[in-house]
Amino acid sequence: MTGYDQEDAKELVRLHAKNDSGIVNAITVLISIISLGNSENRNEVGRLEAIFDLMDFNHNSKISLDELTILLLCISSSFGFILGAKEGEDEAKQPVIVEFAKQIYQSLGKRPQSNITRDELVEWTKENVFAHGATNINELNNKLAQLGNPAAGEGKEGKED
After folding, report:
1. What would the pLDDT profile of 110-157 be if each residue is shown by its tens digit?
2. Percent of the chain scored above 90 by pLDDT?
3. How far apart are CA 143 and CA 117, in angstroms?
4. Which pTM value belongs to this model?
5. What is the pLDDT of residue 87?
6. Angstrom distance (rounded) from CA 151 to CA 144
7. How many other CB atoms sit within 10 Å of the CB of residue 50?
8. How far apart are CA 40 and CA 47, in angstroms?
9. In whole angstroms, how far apart are CA 27 and each of 13, 73, 106, 147, 149?
10. What residues contact residue 33 under an 8 Å CB cut-off, 6+ apart?
11. 65 with 101: CB under 8 angstroms?
């Protein structure tokens, strides 16, 4: 499924364990596997659908605002592990991610008590993330940070590394 050999798979799980405890957030690990696995056949929509399905426990292609928030928190953690974020950076992002989930709902005209469908989230992501060239994990992480916290993107336009 991942294209990783056994040693690489063990290393991926080890990187996700806090304090080398071996205890991991399974959804975060699965998001990392989906994000990194089988790069020859990249299908970003397919990957997004697979990640959505991790939170769709009753398989009705719908999740609640709370589930979307948890999913975004897990995506943020996964990207943090992949990009080598410093300890504690995830916790600092949590309030921004909670607001980001609410912004997604508002932009889709959803009430907080309603559900969002997989197709709605896929279309929103295609229009607001993929359409702006964010196709690799670093670009996705930066774009999601800008969408979730518009002040994070200020002053970065036109600057080259």
Report:
1. 999 999 999 999 899 888 877 666 555 566 666 666 655 555 544 444
2. 20
3. 22
4. 0.72
5. 67
6. 12
7. 16
8. 13
9. 12, 10, 25, 23, 24
10. 1, 2, 12
11. yes
Radius of gyration of the chain (CA): 16
For the chain, the DSSP string reads -----HHHHHHHHHHHSGGG-S---HHHHHHHHHHHS-GGG--HHHHHHHHHHHH-TTSSSEEEHHHHHHHHHHHHHHHHHHHTPPTTHHHHHHHHHHHHHHHHHHHTT--TTSEEEHHHHHHHHHHHTGGGT--SHHHHHHHHHHHH-GGGGTT-TT---
CA of residue 66 relative to chain centroid, distance: 15
Residue 160: phi and psi, rounded to 5, are -110, 145
